[in-house]
Amino acid sequence: MSLTTVHTVADLRATVASWRAEGLRVALVPTMGALHDGHISLTKLALEHADRVIVSIFVNPTQFSPDEDFGAYPRTLPDDQKLLDGAGVALCFAPSVDEMYPDGFATKVHVDGGMTNVLCGAARPGHFDGVAQIVTKLLLQALPDCAIFGQKDYQQLMVIRRFSADLNIPVEIIGAKILREKDGLAMSSRNRYLTPDERAIAPTLNRVLASITAAAASGADIGPLLAKGREDILSAGFDPIDYLEIRDAQTLDLVTQTVTKPARVFVAARLGKARLIDNHAIEPSHTAG
Ligand code: PAF
């Protein structure tokens, strides 16, 4: 099956309706384009859950603040289409900003509470409102059986699970594991911003997270681990660090002493023009108390 690209909600809906008439299952993979192997791993997972896969490509202006990289964000539709075609994706939905936010658009989707005020929510005010707004629209426009989101944006995944449950959106939200380069760097469209020297430094984040994870899982005190991690990240050349924190894997509440329940260690730090994020799961192997 070769890839078809549509640019309007009407064409998206007509295609999905024709698949529904054949009794087919549908998966959606929302993206902002500049696709890489990490995205392709999401489409592979989607194909395990559905007969037809849609990939949306839309650089959503409402999730960027004015000082961020909305203008510079890579837009590579022809290359993206080639990749999707080779990956067995049936439909690429690539709407314009006017199609998604026509004149008179006035609706916001806001997820309240701790989950959106911490980590990237604190560092990027308004970011998750923009994500919630666009993902709500995409889910309702396509109404797939399931939608796939990468765990590199773990906080985003948790926010999406929250509002889709709260709003009774009838779509199963599936998290996909992080795909890494051979040297451990988490795949990201923003890795394109790195110079060769910065690219050599970038895997430090994964190394620091891995060593914090191993020690925290066996019951080490978190304070000194994070202090050493910060020192290693800064001395590698990252500056500033937005956060390096351990949080509960479900609630995202801060963990301050030792890890006794499934948790995750999260980092966001700037290297040259790129703001890189990553996280690792911590499964405690020691017995508390
Ligand atoms: O993770 C992303 O690429 C974006 O935040 C998403 C989910 C496609 C919404 O614009």
UniProtKB/TrEMBL annotation:
Gene3D superfamilies: HUPs (3.40.50.620), Pantoate-beta-alanine ligase, C-terminal domain (3.30.1300.10). Keywords: ATP-binding, Cytoplasm, Ligase, Nucleotide-binding, Pantothenate biosynthesis. It comes from the Bacteria. It is found in: Cytoplasm. Homodimer. Belongs to the pantothenate synthetase family. This is Pantothenate synthetase. It comes from Thalassospira lohafexi. The lineage of its organism: Bacteria, Pseudomonadati, Pseudomonadota, Alphaproteobacteria, Rhodospirillales. The gene is panC.
